[in-house]
Amino acid sequence: MMVLEILAAAFLGLLIGSFLNVCIHRLPEDESLLQPARSYCPHCRAMIAWYDNIPVLSYILLRAKCRACGASISWRYPLVEAITGILFGASVYVHGWNWMGLKHCIFAAILVDLVFTDLETYILPDEFTLGGSVVGLVMAALAPANTRFLAFFLPATWPLWLIGVLEGAFAGCILAGLMWTGGMLFQKIRGKEGLGLGDVKMLLVIGVFLGLPATLLTVFLGSLLGSIVGGFYIVMSRKDWDFEIPFGTFLGFAAMMLSLFGDVFFKWYWKLG
Fold it and tell me: What angle do CA 264, 266, 268 make, to 5 degrees?
């Protein structure tokens, strides 16, 4: 039965990935997600028929070309759909067909949107950062993070759902607050913006979903990944070292890894202690 549940989650992820592509395209342009109701070609604005909008498969059958105008379809569309499907299936495999699995599927969808929107436009939409934080608090009550930092400081008689909500709110606010403070100090010292407000909001949603320990590790891994990949790209492309790196993209990839493997890492770490 578990195989069927994983496949069902992966299939749902493909469909959600198709919707995320709409969000990635429209939200940075302040376009409505409801009007037009159907997807359209960004080049000729022709409406896309349902049989040309099947996740991944349509991209292959159309040979990455719009049926109406022949313009190339971005590789981002099948990639977003495939990654979302894989993350949904992996989340159910790791966390189960339950509230925790649902929580991490929702988190995966939020991260995929933020990663690719930041990568393309350097924008992290409030609908997925602030809106995602609200959804994360609801899911924190239904499926509290396994690494509960605040549980050590709160009365043992408090219900688990309340501790989960407080843990998520505390982690998100603390990390976002520290990151905002660091960005402000950098701006004061260097006279230029070092961290966008969108990255601060993204840390808020990551903290709400993952809790404090995993979010701290996310910041470390995201910074490390951004430094390595961003530095390599700057050197290879011969860009100036002031080139802006989409930090949210690297935070998102790090959060994806912690969402799937965070429990394994922390169990291993505490055993070493």
Answer: 70
The answer for residues whose C-beta is within 8 angstroms of residue 222's C-beta and 6 or more apart is 247, 250, 251, 252, 253, 254, 255
pLDDT digits (tens, 9 = 90+) for 185-210: 867 776 666 567 888 999 999 999 99
3-class SS of residue 242 = coil
Query: What is the DSSP-derived secondary structure letter of residue 50?
Result: G
Task: Tell me the domain boundaries of the chain.
Answer: 1-97, 124-273
Determine how many CB atoms are found less than 10 A away from the CB of residue 233: 12
H-state helical runs in the chain:
2-26, 57-61, 76-95, 99-121, 126-142, 160-190, 197-210, 212-237, 247-272
Cβ atoms 206, 130 nearer than 8 A: no
Instruction: Kindly report the length of the chain.
Output: 273
Q: Alpha-carbon torsion 9, 11, 13, 15, what sign?
A: negative
Longest distance between any two alpha carbons in the chain, whole Å: 64
Residue type, 235: V
CA distance 257 to 11: 21
Please state the separation of Cα 48 from the chain's center in Å: 27
Cα separation of 198 and 247, whole Å?
Answer: 10
pLDDT at 97 over 70: yes
Q: Give bridge partners of residue 47 from the DSSP assignment.
A: 40
